[in-house]
Amino acid sequence: VQLQASGGGLVQAGGSLRLSCAVSGRTFRSLAVGWFRQASGKEREFIAATKKSGATPLYADSVKDRFTMSRDNAKNTVYLQMISLKPEDTAVYYCAADSTLITSSLATATAYDYWGQGTQVTVSS
């Protein structure tokens, strides 16, 4: 499985960005896909994930109501729409995938076998 994240950039506080994660190499619909982020000097943090296409996303409390994860089966792409961005959202954002992950592990970074390269999101105050 290969993942390619894109869409990061510099945005002012209160602004919006949409990240994309193109997935190839395995049946997209059955893959669990997650978004994580890692700020400088901090541990990787769970953002959102879905067990498979059509499943309701799980969100971290810190982004609930501001971030929306979606999947486009026709494009084998996962999106993370981010609104009302805050300076504390600044981080490198990663998408990850796994074919055997169980629901209880969706928020666990070490449970994912495949990772994209990350895309930088910087929110200025």
Compose a concise summary of this entry.
With 125 residues, this protein is mainly beta. It contains no helices and 11 strands.
Would you write up a description of this structure?
Helices cover 0% and strands 48% of the residues. With 125 residues, it is mainly beta. Strands 2, 4, 5, 6, 9, 10 and 11 form a 7-stranded mixed β-sheet that branches. A hairpin with a 6-residue loop joins β4 and β5. The radius of gyration is 13 Å and the shape is globular. The protein starts with a strand and ends with a strand.
| Total beta strand runs | 11
Q: Quick one: biggest sheet?
A: 7 strands, mixed
Would you tell me the structural class of the helices and strands?
A: mainly beta
Number of helices: 0
| Range of strand content | over 45%
**What would you call the shape?**
globular
How much helix, percentage-wise, in residues? under 10%
Measured between the Cα atoms of the first and last residue, the distance is 37 Å
Mean pLDDT, to the nearest integer, reads 95
- Element-by-element helix/strand order: EEEEEEEEEEE
Unreliable segments (pLDDT under 50, ≥5 consecutive)?
none
